[in-house]
Specification:
It is a single chain. With 77 residues, the chain is mainly α. The chain has a domain at 38-77. Helices cover 52% and strands 0% of the residues. The protein has helices at 17-28, 35-41, 45-58, 68-74. It is globular, with a radius of gyration of 12 Å. GO terms for molecular function: sequence-specific DNA binding. InterPro entries: DUF1153, Trp_repressor/repl_initiator, WH-like_DNA-bd_sf. This is DUF1153 domain-containing protein.
């Protein structure tokens, strides 16, 4: 079960796909508002929206840093 306590810590600097997926799931499940991850992790709303869009279209593999460009090109807005 996802809780605020087991989300990535606010000082996270290495964003692996699993951590990105946890944040996306927390927003989708109502645990966090869309603004909370932006403030907590000092990220833009655009970055969070990109994670959400890629995850919705292709799942966790799309959140891998080495594959994000591929998925952006093949799963446009």
């Amino acid at each position: 079960m996802l809780t605020k306590e087991n989300l990535p810590p606010p000082a996270t600097t290495r964003w692996v796909s699993r951590r990105k997926a946890q944040v996306v799931a927390a927003v989708k499940g109502g645990l966090l508002t869309p603004n909370e991850p932006c403030a907590r992790y000092q990220m833009s709303s655009g970055e969070l929206e990109t994670w959400q869009r890629l995850f919705d279209r292709a799942g966790m593999p799309a959140l891998r840093a080495t594959r994000m460009q591929y998925y952006r090109e093949h799963f446009p807005e």
